[in-house]
Design goal:
Pfam families: Flavoprotein. One of its GO terms (molecular function) is flavin prenyltransferase activity. It is built from eight helices and six strands; from the N terminus they run E-H-E-H-H-E-E-H-H-E-H-E-H-H. It has a single domain (9-207), classed as Rossmann fold (3-Layer(aba) Sandwich), CATH 3.40.50.1950. It has helices at 20-32, 43-53, 60-68, 104-111, 118-129, 144-155, 174-188, 199-207; strands at residues 9-14, 36-41, 74-79, 97-102, 133-137, 159-160.
């Protein structure tokens, strides 16, 4: 987990919403592309990582090193309580931020400018600096407050990518569905990838 100042930088947040695998696969994809990823995981996010993937919060440094050590990019982990971290300042240049998955609590905080931890502060920085912010909400059903918060953020220029995987590309596993959603997030950031077969490409293969 080195700190290379020459790399393109991006912030990834993982909250306590179900679907922590989405965030992990996003980090891996960005590292494979050569990005320096600044990762923030909320306390609830660590609990869900433990429940869904068996990741121990008590051994967080080891867990992160084991899963991301072979990547070509570099990972910088920031504790959620470190409000003085680099990504809390607009003078620290990053290309974008993605919160994946994004809980309704975090989404509400961002929508209302509540910067009570590093993740929501980093998101607030994206808004005030006019930088791309992508949120991947994972909740169902949605009530009016959820929808109003998402509409408010969308009007501010935030990209909302609900955790809604598609089936037109013929997924064969849960991993295929995860890769599709990660790919859609990368599409919004104009980052090239080959995580899923696109609609036109699939039709071409069928005609050959």
């Amino acid at each position: 987990m080195s700190n290379n100042h020459g790399q393109r930088k991006i912030v990834v947040g993982i909250t306590g919403a179900s679907g922590s695998i989405y965030g992990i696969r996003l980090v891996q994809a960005l590292l494979d592309t050569g990005y320096q990823v600044h990762l923030v995981i909320s306390n609830a996010g660590w609990r869900v990582l433990n429940e869904e993937l068996g990741w121990s919060a008590a051994e967080r440094e080891r867990m992160l090193s084991e899963h991301f050590e072979a990547a070509s990019g570099s990972l910088v982990y920031h504790p959620a309580g470190d409000i003085g971290a680099t990504i809390a300042s607009g003078s620290f240049l990053v290309e974008a931020m993605v919160i994946m998955p994004c809980s309704m609590g975090t989404l509400a905080s961002v929508a209302n400018g509540i910067s009570d931890n590093l993740m929501t502060r980093a998101a607030d920085v994206m808004l005030k600096e006019g930088r791309p912010l992508v949120l991947v909400p994972r909740e169902t059903p949605l009530h009016a407050i959820h929808l109003e918060n998402m509409l408010k953020l969308a009007r501010l220029g935030v990209t909302i990518v609900p955790a809604m995987p598609a089936f037109y590309f013929g997924p064969q596993s849960i991993e295929d569905l995860v890769r599709f959603l990660v790919g859609k997030v990368l599409d919004t950031l104009r980052i090239e990838h080959s995580l899923f077969t696109r609609w036109g490409d699939r039709n071409e293969h069928q005609r050959e």
